[in-house]
Every structure is written in C-alpha cells, then in structure tokens.
Amino acid sequence: MSISQSAAKEHIEQLQRLQKKDPEFYQYLQEHGKDLLTFDDEGIDDDVDVDMEDAETQLDDETHEHDIAEEEEKQSKNIVTNAMVDSWCNSIREDGKLSAVHSLMKAFRTACHYGDDTGDSSAKFTVMSSSVFNKIMLFTLSELDRILRKLLKLPASGGKKETINELMSTKQWKSYNHLVKSYLGNALHVLNQMTDTKMISFTLRRLQYSSVLLAPFPSLLRKFIKVALHFWGTGGGALPVVSFLFLRDLCVRLGSDCLDECFRGIYKAYVLNCHFVNAVKLQHIQFLANCVIELIRVDLPTAYQHAFVFIRQLAMLLRDALNMKTKEAFRKVYEWKFMNCLELWTGAICAYSSEADFQPLAYPLTQIISGVARLVPTARYFPLRLRCVRMLNRIAASTGTFIPVSMLLLDMLEMKELNRPPTGGIGKAVDLRATLKASKPILKTRAFQEACVISVVEELAEHLAQWSYSVAFFELSFIPAVRLRSFCKSTKVERFRKEMRHLIRRIEANTEFTNKRRASVTFLPNDHAATSFLEVCAIIIS
To answer: How many Å separate Cα 102 from the centre of its chain?
Structure first.
C-alpha cells in the first residue's frame, strides 16, 4: 500500500469516529459540505502520483540545467587567456608574488603537455590558444631561472654542485624544490615532443642556465644527458653546438655526477655517426670529433680512464684480424667506424700531448695505427694507408717522438699500380680523404695513380721536415733518398720524376747543411745537447 492510500483510509476512519462522537455536527456537514464527506481514495492516489511525477520531472530538468551551467562555469575557469598570463607575469616582475608563480607553473605544465593523448583531469588549466602557449613558454623559459634562484637565495648565475648540496638542507629548498622539479621535468617533456630545431635550440639554451639545479635529481639528469646527446648527434643547424654546450656545462658544474655518463654517451654517439662517410659528411664528423676532444678537457684524469678502455677495444679488434685472418675480421678493422675512432684519439692525443695524463696513450695508439696500415698491403687500400700515415705524422709532430713512417710510403712506390703506366684511361678525380678502398676500375686510372704518388711525396716531405733539424738527419734520410732515386729511374711518368727530383734536391741540401754543422760539435749522440741541435737554424723541407 502506498503512502497516499494509507493517508486516505485514515482520513475516512476519522470521519466515522466523528459521526459517533458528534452526530449533530456530522449531520451539519452532510447538509452544508457534502463534498468533504465523499472522500475518493482512488482519486487522491492518482492525483498524488501525478504530482510526484511532475515534481520528479521538474527536479530532473532543474538538475540538468544546473549541471550544464556548472560545466560551462568550470570550462570557463579552465581557459587560460592572454590577460591572465599578463597578470601573472606582471605580478611576478613587480611584486614577486608566489601565488602568481604557482599559477604560471600550472599553466606551463599544461603548455608542455598540450596535445598529449592522455589528458590530465586534475589539471587546473586545460585550454589555451597558440598565442597564450607562446607567451607562457617564452616567459617561463626566459625568467623562471632567475625567479627560482631568487626564491632559493642562489647566485644570479653559475654555481657548482657543492652549492646545491649545501642548499638541500635549508628551509628554502624544502619549500620550493617542487617548483624546480616541476620546471625541469616539464621542460624535459616538451623537449621530447618538439620537432623544430630552432625551438629546441632556444629551449636548451635557456635550460643551460639552470643546469646546476639538476644535481638533486639524478633521474632527470640522466634523461637530460640522453636527450642532449641525441640532439648533438642528429640535429641540424645550430642545434648540435647548443646541445654540446649544454653537455659541457653539465660536466663543468656537476663534475663526477655526470662525467662518466657523458664521456661514454658522447663517444657512443660519435661512433654511431661514423658508419658511412662521404665528402659532405666529413666536415660534420670532424665537428663531432672536435666536440669530444673539447669535452675531454673538462677532466683529463677521468677522460684518460675511458680513453684507455676505448683504445684497448680497437687493439683487440686488430688483434683478432691478425690472428684469424678472415674477411669478417678484416672488415671490422677496414671500415669507417674503426678509422674514425683512430682519427678521434689521434686528435685527442695531439691536443693534450703536453699533459701527463694523456702522454701514455700515444705509444699504444701508434702501434695500432701502424698495424692497421700493414694489415692488408695491397694497392686497393692505398687511401687507408695514407690516412694512417697522416695520423702517425700528426702524433710525431705533437709529441716530438720519432715514428718510422717512411717505409710505409716508400713501399707504395714499388708496387706495380704506381710503377707502371695506367691502363684504365684518365679517370675521374679521386678524393683519397673520402675513401678507404679503391675499386678495381679506379685502381687502373691515371687520376688514382697521380693522387697516390703526390700524397706519398707530401707525407714523406712532412715526415722528414719534422727531423730536418736533427743531428741524425743524414741517417734518417739516406734510405728514403736511395729509394726515391730508384723510383725516378723506373717510372715513365715525367710529372712523377719532376716531383721526386725536387724532393731529393731538398733532402740533399738539408743533409749537406746538417753534416757541416755536426762536424763541429763536441757532444756525443747520447748527450742531451743533441736534442736541440740546429733547432733554431733548421732548414724546413718545403
């Protein structure tokens, strides 16, 4: 039974009790208010049900209208406008209001995650225009480092890991470290989403000012190193330079926290970019090598440990090739990746030859390069051999150490490919710096023959010029002079004869000069004075 039916039944019982208790009043009601006594419980029940349905319908309509209004009000609150951003920026610039900083950081988080597939329902702001996005990003990246440093009471710029370590125990750090982590974490996220190199360069350049703040967050630090290494190796335009400067700043300011990871990572990124080489890519590879060499300067003792391991890996590959003598083993040595690694460490040793930390690496690297040059002594690998000779000459010049490269060059002149007239025609010009192995058709061309002979003369002249002031120049140059004369007699190319005769005349002139000067010396060959013999008045072979 419903509530309305029970109420009607109760009302009828009350009327019956009234009839028994006061018959006169009941009779009066019958005469003057008959409608009050004829009570229809079914009608009442129907009316009540209709009223309830109408009330529920009205309530649903009101609730729906309220929900729509509430949703519209909520959406209007989530929209970030230019006026809101300007208000926050002005409050931060003029008064340094912390509430404005918090609002800006929430908007910055929204901007960094703008367009993500997974929406964040807890975000305070979810909607913004492109102009608002740009304004938030520009202001935050340009000004937030200054704001955070002011809140944390840090110097306006710079700083070291030790400063941050001391800061971590202060009240300021406990109050504001979440702002630092939010800024760096969201900036890292947007870096991973960006595709425009200019935007990435700007973002990294601004984040470099806050690099020291990564010290308390090792996980973020590793991710930033990984991102910067990726941009350094694959970016275009100014991005590789900006990425390298970011990495170098990390190493300088954070020291041991990131040195090992940066050294390993940058060497791996360099190797990945050295698999294939052409004339255009050579400049990029040289730039990458210069960056690695510059990063080594930050901490030479630590860099030496890594360099020793990497050079040892090259030595093991060469050892396997010498022992196994298979095509696969030779291929691992005679490829661009291996040769560019040799070039890298040659450049590093030449740059730091005066540093005691790097001097011990010169000898093993020289042994590896010499072994590579002799591994497959065929004419097709003349370009590779000449590259090895250039590296040995560079090491000898920077360390002041005698390295016997003349035999590597003179052996080339005695091979039939350079001794006999070419049978493949003139051929196209050959760039020996952009190739390691010559094809068989190119091997028979006059262009290849001329390029090889001229390169032999240049490298031999450079080698002898390094020792043109030595008291032992006569002994050093005797065998090369004899073999050069032999080549002049055997070759039928007049241009080659002209080049060889000019070099022989310069050798003979310098030999005559040094012999006259050493005839008057009184010291023995093992005397220390012999090392400075003719150092000032040396005749440099040109």
So the answer is: 31
Cα(520)–Cα(513) distance, integer angstroms: 12
Cα–Cα distance, 431 to 451 (Å, whole number):
8
Give the percent of the chain with pLDDT over 70: 80
Given a cut of 60, whether residue 51 has pLDDT beyond it is no
Q: How far apart are the C-alpha atoms of 530 and 368, rounded to whole Å? A: 30
**Residues 6+ away with beta carbon under 8 Å from 223:** 188
Rg (CA), the chain: 43
Q: Using CA atoms, how far apart are residues 145 and 108, in angstroms rounded to an integer?
A: 14
Contacts of residue 10, Cβ cutoff 8 Å, sequence gap at least 6? none
Does pLDDT of 138 surpass 60?
yes
pLDDT of residue 418: 83
Strand partners, 127: 79
Task: Report the SS3 class of residue 128.
Answer: strand
Task: State how far the Cα of 101 lies from the Cα of 179, in Å rounded to an integer.
Answer: 9
| Main-chain phi, psi angles of 304, to 5 degrees | -60, -40
Residues 6+ apart with CB under 8 A from 292: 266, 267, 270, 344, 348
Which of 361, 266, 351 has its CA nearest to residue 315? Answer: 361
Cβ atoms 218, 257 nearer than 8 A: yes
Which DSSP symbol is given to 169? T
CA distances from 6 to 3, 43, 45, 186 (A): 5, 13, 10, 66
Contacts (Cβ under 8 Å, ≥6 apart) of 417? 379, 382, 443, 444, 449, 452
Please give the pLDDT value at position 129: 81
pLDDT digits 0-9 by tens, 164-217 = 989 899 999 999 999 999 999 999 999 999 999 999 999 999 999 999 999 999
> Which residues pair with residue 80 across a beta bridge?
128
Residue 474 near residue 515, CB atoms below 8 Å: yes
Nearest to 390 by CA among 375, 405, 378, 402: 405
Alpha carbon distance 128, 294 (integer Å) = 43
Residue 227 is predicted with a pLDDT of: 96
3-state secondary structure 357-381: CCHHHHHHHHHHHHHHHHHCCCHHH
85: Cβ–Cβ under 8 A, 6 or more apart, which residues?
104, 107, 132, 135, 136, 139
The model scores a pTM over 0.90: no
